[in-house]
Write a structure and sequence with these properties.
The chain crosses the membrane at residues 158-178. With 278 residues, the protein is of the alpha+beta class. The protein is built from five helices and 13 strands. It has helices at residues 3-39, 138-143, 148-153, 157-188, 270-277, and strands at 43-46, 51-57, 69-72, 79-88, 95-103, 110-117, 129-134, 191-199, 206-210, 223-227, 233-242, 247-251, 262-264. The strands form three sheets. Strands 8-9-12-11-10-13 form a six-stranded antiparallel beta barrel.
């Protein structure tokens, strides 16, 4: 096995791994986003004894936490919203508040709505309406999750995407580096990848273009071999046109040549090398 064939196999396998990891990352994100859209805005899935951070803008004509009116939850305070502090908004400015939805040890399962507004009857801000869905246990919550990965495997799709993405990027980088190493190995073996395949202008076959030219020892009329990246022979071609860095070779119609196949020039005879050196 030549070095280029070995690198070609590694390059192909690393590309498949990178693609698979990127697909896992993308599908996980899609699953998570679709699940969030199905859940609706400001929804919290809660368990007994849990505490879940929430925040929002201060209602109109409200300056302190005591001015906020909080409605909803449960009368026995098993499900309630507790504001903690007021702070300045990071992006749009203005006053914000942060707090937590607290769930007691023995809440009744179900959905509860909590609204935050001012005491003057201003229009309700939809971002200050919180839906709290209380589940009896974690297994029930996951079994009813809108995300498929959570329902089927008990995995948070956003956490999976964040975990897989660095490995996908590393695999993509490795694939890129292996591709460059493969190209250098091909060049050392007087070979290059076919990057263009067109019908011949005179209808006498097909023309393949590859990255070897006059500076690599190619010349019109030269016979060259074509093979798959894994080394499987395909056939022969005849060089019909050359530039400094590229060549066009003619292949018969019945030859199953594909872009990505490899063209190898014949070895330079020792006498020709000596003549060229002289």
């Amino acid at each position: 096995m030549t070095r280029s064939v070995h690198l070609a196999r590694l390059h192909r396998r690393s590309g498949k791994v990178a693609l698979l990891l990127l697909l896992v990352c993308a599908l996980s994100l899609v699953d998570g986003l679709v699940g969030r859209m199905q859940q609706g805005f400001n929804r919290t899935d809660a368990l007994p004894g849990g505490e879940y951070p929430v925040s929002g803008p201060l209602p109109p004509q409200t300056e302190t936490l005591e001015d906020m009116v909080i409605e909803g939850g449960t009368d026995d305070r098993q499900v309630r919203l507790v504001p903690y502090e007021i702070y300045s908004g990071y992006w749009l400015g203005g006053k914000m508040w942060r707090g937590a939805i607290k769930v007691g040890a023995n809440p009744a399962s179900g959905e509860y709505v909590i609204r935050v507004h001012d005491k003057y009857g201003e229009k309700q801000n939809p971002t200050l309406i919180f839906a709290v869905v209380v589940w009896p246990d974690e297994a029930t919550r996951m079994a009813n999750a809108p995300e498929r990965l959570t329902r089927w495997l008990g995995i948070d799709p956003f956490a999976l995407a964040a975990l897989v993405l660095p490995f996908a990027l590393l695999a993509g980088l490795g694939n890129f580096m292996l591709g460059r190493a493969w190209s250098r190995a091909l060049l050392a073996e007087r070979s290059a990848e076919i990057y263009k395949l067109l019908p011949a202008p005179d209808g006498g076959g097909k023309d393949v273009t590859f990255g070897l030219g006059v500076q690599h020892g190619a010349s019109p009329g030269m016979r060259c071999r074509i093979h798959r990246p894994d080394g499987t022979p395909v056939g022969e071609a005849r060089v019909v046109e050359c530039t400094a860095r590229d060549c066009v070779a003619r292949v018969p119609h019945d030859l199953n040549v594909q872009p990505g196949d490899v063209v190898t020039l014949p070895d330079i005879a020792p006498q020709a090398e000596a003549t060229h050196g002289a």
